[in-house]
Amino acid sequence: xxxxxxxxxxxxxxxxxYPGRLQRDEMGEPKVIVATCGHCGFSWNDALxxxxxxxxxxxxxxxxxxxxxxxxxxxxxxxxxRLIDALGWDTLADIGPTLTCTEVDALADFLRAHGQDESAxxxxxxxxxxxxxxxxxxxxxxx
Length: 143
Description:
Blueprint: E1 7-11, E2 17-22, E3 34-36, E4 43-45, E5 48-49, H1 75-86, H2 89-95, H3 101-113, H4 117-130
Antiparallel strand pairs: 1-2, 2-5, 3-4
Helix pairs in contact: 2-4, 3-4
């Protein structure tokens, strides 16, 4: 059973904390094996077993915080931003009637997830005008 000095906490540069268990040497003393990441310079006790340092020197526990300037930018984020910028209200009003209910709901959810609530409303309203009676978004006949 571990005692209080068997446990320790790994703290990443962003403040994330990972509780762990210290390995002990043959004499029962806590091990201290300092490892330092060659990329970010973060150092940690490699004898501390945590969920992010399960094996000694397996990898830097701050690996997901590494920035590699020569890598391409996040293509998904760039493409998402370009798509949102390109989908103006006129375009959404034009394509709304051509989409199925499932397609319009998916695109509206995407727009809402990116803070474009008004654009989602424009899209669904345009789609609803073309929906047939009994369809999910049917707005009824104007009289």
